[in-house]
Specification:
InterPro entries: AAA+_ATPase, P-loop_NTPase, Spore_III_AA_AAA+_ATPase. One of its GO terms (molecular function) is ATP binding. This is AAA+ ATPase domain-containing protein. By secondary structure, the protein is an alpha+beta fold. It has two domains: 244 residues, P-loop containing nucleotide triphosphate hydrolases (Rossmann fold, 3-Layer(aba) Sandwich); 100 residues, Beta-Lactamase. Helix content is 22%, strand content 28%. It is built from ten helices and 22 strands. A nine-stranded mixed sheet has the order 14-13-15-16-12-19-20-21-22, sandwiched between helices. Strands 7-6-5-10-9-8 form a six-stranded antiparallel sheet, with helices on one face. Strand 5 and strand 6 form a beta hairpin. Helix 6 packs parallel to helix 7. The chain starts with a strand and ends in a 6-residue tail after the last strand.
Length: 398
């Protein structure tokens, strides 16, 4: 059954079990999640009703965090490793001449982890441990999902490091599982750190291993499949194409389609006009696209002249007098000029609160100054996914 709202909004309903229309969790008393760490280790934990009322319950597990902490000074290494909330660690900041900071999930700002400043020797030690940085000033640790990003001085020396923890957390796929079954292209937007790349990684695994699709990941910064030539186990059977430098991402996207016959292309951080055009070219060949783009909400993509092609592009149209009167609008208006590359756009407001747009309908409504209808997907206090249909879109609700 297809649901149609009074505003002619059509959203595809969830498919039959194992996922119900109100929750996409399998029917079990205690939903199971998994954290994939390195290659062979998988730690399972349960988000049961006895857990904290927060939907992002604290996890206790042994991951590959030590490999990231190994590049830090020994005092910071031991300090962070012994923290009770280490599983919530997001990144470690090392800036020359400043106190080192740790940033944790769900906390604003950074936490000072030492009362002495970072020295040149400590940055040099970390640089030697990491190895060579790419042209985008990013590096990884082989066999892990961690990312280290450098800040350089005008002379090219490293004066700051952002050491970001990479974790392959499965359990988010239920937020979008029903949409994946329809074989439609999906674009994710959201602020940095909300979990877009984590979702890309899990979608790659599920489409490859459960849906048996030919999946190719275009992994520009090795964030999805991890550093090194052997991809991380978290992407399952999906194949991964590395990109020599960020400016070549669009070429590798087209190469993936021409050479490897994928049914699905997954690409993170679509940000240039060439990449947007490559996405359209790929979609026109019948290949499913799953991607992320720079922006927090649909409105950001619509106003971005480079990325607006992802949602169909926007052009100025001059109406005749009769047409303008019939529409009760000005003679010069904005309209969508082509079908969107992505059928659905999902705004990730946070890890457990998503808004799902049917792209063409929402774009057209917003251009006419009207409020589109969206699906709200969120977790309740027990960790179950609840889908609220035909909700009025609130683009300011952050």
């Amino acid at each position: 059954m297809v649901m149609t709202s009074s505003l002619n909004m059509v959203l595809l309903p969830p498919l039959p079990p194992p996922y119900s229309t109100t929750t996409l969790f399998p029917s079990s008393k205690s939903p199971q999640f998994h954290i994939h760490t390195h290659y062979a280790k998988t730690i399972t934990f349960s988000n049961s009703s006895s857990s904290s009322s927060s939907s992002s319950s604290s996890l206790v597990h042994n991951d590959d965090l030590q490999q990231l902490l190994h590049i830090l000074p020994s005092d910071l290494h031991h300090n962070l490793l012994n923290q009770t909330n280490r599983t919530q660690l997001v990144e470690v900041i090392l800036d020359l001449g400043r106190f080192p900071e740790a940033r944790y999930l769900g906390q604003h700002g950074g936490k000072c982890i030492r009362n002495t400043e970072v020295t040149v020797k400590e940055l040099e030690y970390a640089e030697d441990a990491v190895g060579e940085f790419g042209r985008d000033n990013r590096a990884g640790i082989e066999g892990t999902l961690h990312r280290i990003s450098a800040i350089r001085s005008r002379k090219g020396g490293i004066v700051g490091l952002t050491c970001r923890v990479g974790r392959a957390v499965s359990g988010q796929i239920d937020m979008v599982y029903d949409l994946l079954q329809y074989g439609k292209s999906i674009l994710f937007v959201g602020r940095p750190g909300v979990g877009k790349t984590t979702v890309m990684r899990e979608i790659a695994r599920v489409l490859s291993d459960e849906f048996h699709k030919r999946v190719v990941i275009v992994d520009t910064s090795n964030e999805i499949g991890g550093d090194g030539n052997i991809p991380h186990a978290a992407i399952g059977g999906a194949r991964r194409m590395q990109v020599p430098e960020p400016s070549m991402q669009h070429r590798v996207m087209v190469e993936a389609v021409e050479n490897h016959m994928p049914e699905v292309i997954i690409v993170d951080e679509i940000g240039t006009e060439a990449e947007a055009h490559a996405c359209r070219s790929i979609a026109e060949r019948g290949v499913i696209l799953i991607g992320t783009a720079h922006g927090e909400q649909l409105d950001n993509i619509m106003k971005n002249p480079i990325l607006s092609d992802l949602i169909g592009g926007i052009e100025t149209v001059t109406l005749g007098d009769a047409e303008a009167r019939a529409r009760n609008c000005q003679k010069t208006i904005l309209e969508r000029k082509a079908p969107p590359t992505f059928d659905f756009l999902i705004e990730m407001r946070d890890m457990h609160y998503w808004l799902t747009h049917q792209t063409d309908k929402s774009v057209d409504m917003l251009l006419r100054g009207k409020i589109p209808q969206v699906e709200v997907r969120k977790r309740d206090v027990k960790g179950k996914v609840v889908i609220e249909k035909s909700k009025a879109y609130d683009k300011c609700q952050f």
